[in-house]
Amino acid sequence: FSSLLQEVVSEEGEEESSGVNLMEFSDEILLHILSYVPCTDLVLNVRRTCRKLATLCLDKSLTHTVLLQKDYKVNKDKVKQLMRDIGKEIYQLNMAGCYWLPSSTIDHVTRCKNLVKLNLSGCHITSLRLSKMLSTLQHLRSLAIDVNPGFDASQLSSECKATLSRVSELKQTLYTPSYGVVPCCTSLEKLLLYFEILDRSREGFMLSGQLMVGESNVPHYQNLRVFYARLAPGYVNQEVVRLYLAVLSDRTPENLHAFLISAPGSFAETGATKNLLDSMARNVRLDALQLPKAWINGSGLLQHLKFNNPFYFSFSRCTLSGGHLIQRVINGGKDLKSLTSLNLSGCVHCLAPESLFRKAEDDIDSSILESLVASCCNLRHLNLSAAHHHSSESIGNHLCQLLSRLKHLLSLALPVCSITDVAANAEKPPTASNLVPQTFGRKVRIGIQTYPRNLGDQANQKIESSVFWALMGSLRFLETLEIIGSSFSSAMPRNEPAIRNSLPPCARAQSVGDSEVAAISQVTYLQSLTLAQLPNILTGSGLVNIGLQCQHLRTLSLANLGMMGKVVYMSALMDMLKHCKCLRDLRLEQPYFCAGAQFFQALSHCSSLQRLCIVSRSGTLQSDAVMSFMANCLEVIMCHMFMGESLTVCKNLQQSIVRSFQAERPALNVVIFPLLHEDLTEVIRDVPMRHLDEITLFKSRVAEEPPNLWW
């Protein structure tokens, strides 16, 4: 952008110009244009092009908030110069996930004397550095940090604790059992806790969830309005979060309006947590709620909790029935226009009246979904994944038809079996792919049905008459879409060995394939797409349509499409990638995937690509092709490949990439490792949390957290 502006400025002196001179635009228009340029580029480059831009680039609207969290080209020297030039003008600074910057970089933040909000999640920082920095930031009200092994609260100075006493918003990611700085924050109104403590040390020793003796200070929750805790798998995380909750159980804050705990697996309810929930039922009215499944299942808690104007509910993996959902949460059809985000992922009975005698694959009760849609008409984020939501043959009551009434949806997650057109599917004879077992290996040679490669021919086949086609046509402003098989599980779960086998898709999902994928191309503003376990993918032709029509697509995740013994959609994928100019993140998970020269040549057309992750059992790669791709795609800063190659091949390629490109790309993170190697979990633990959470590990992300939980 700076080089473009330099060209524009150099042409100002020309007597005649057939084009419009950018410098003739009003200041308001130029400021709007400049707001899309990274702050480091504005201050260090663009403002040096001419006098007018020198003034505009230092406008308060551009320097008030500085976002470095995904500026992968920033380095220590640039940060130092940036803080020197505009440090006093910065009120909000976001350096989240800048894992590549040395800890000494934090010292330069002390120049930002007027900081009100500071995000250092994912940055390397010691107790002493934190103390020195916070001692100078007297206006700070919002802080996000990591608490790593070796953190010592006794090293915090009195000036630092004085600053922390005025902080009202704290986000703390824990990698070691600790209260961190929570006891020092006596004015907390919003507390976000991310528990990432491993059960074992690198040496293999079991860790304890007990806090150190000097960390028995009591947190101050009296002013708390928002409490959020997200736990990674492991019993130590559960032990530590109980210590944080113990204070809440003694006295529930009167102003608490959002209480959210996201815990995988089993997180048993105790006497203390039961007292806390009983106190909440008596004393507070909530606007946002998420609880571990064991705290809700079989209890009458939801019947007693009171809600004000709820904007977020998550009942992920709970056995909540549709009857209870309507009666206890929506109050029999109560107007819930305030609700904007709803997560029912893994709630296998949430669209059925009762769960006692129901099988997971029985048809849903459309009247429950109809009540939900009518009451929550302003939903923007809805997650119905990880469950079998099978519609009946009743006309007009298909799940897709009912969801099409939600005109404000921005993100949607559905199970594959829920988008099947029941009536149309009943008339079809079984296709060849239905007759092929969904297992690994090269089993049977079959004839591949030829699908048209353009949207017009598919329209001639009347696929636009399907209920899913109509749903996609009605959600024109959808930005995030996930279609995930109910039985799908990634080959790379966290903190466990790679999964070698996955469950087959359910019978209702067997017909979902290319035509359904083609229907997605109608969503022209789509930015993020996840497709997993679509068994009837025969050629992948629908992917080409998406590449042509969805020009805003930034994130693409494909997993286990079509036959498991062969990548049947490779040709279509390569055609698709040639059109994805805005694509930044690509994740592929498919057995027997061949990452060869043709694939990487097609991928090189994605000029904006920053992160690539490939997970493939028995997959192969060509080292020369990978090196050529990295040389051509200058924006790529993350390359994770977990394949079937030997450890020697993987290590050599990883070392070659780092040696060749690390100097030019300070944020470069490369992990190339055999998928089924016993040390995979040890390798994963060193991956920066930003990449691990956002792309490397597969999960549904729709309505995972309340909207705007943190800036």
Automatic annotation (TrEMBL):
CDD domains: F-box_FBXL18. Signal peptide: none annotated. It comes from the Eukaryota. Residues 19-66 form the F-box domain. It holds the Pfam family LRR_FBXL18. InterPro entries: F-box-like_dom_sf, F-box_dom, FBXL18_F-box, FBXL18_LRR, LRR_dom_sf. Gene3D superfamilies: 1.20.1280.50, Ribonuclease Inhibitor. GO terms for biological process: SCF-dependent proteasomal ubiquitin-dependent protein catabolic process. PROSITE patterns: FBOX. GO terms for cellular component: SCF ubiquitin ligase complex. PANTHER family: F-BOX AND LEUCINE-RICH REPEAT PROTEIN 18 (PTHR16134:SF19), F-BOX/TPR REPEAT PROTEIN POF3 (PTHR16134). This is FXL18 protein. It comes from Nycticryphes semicollaris.
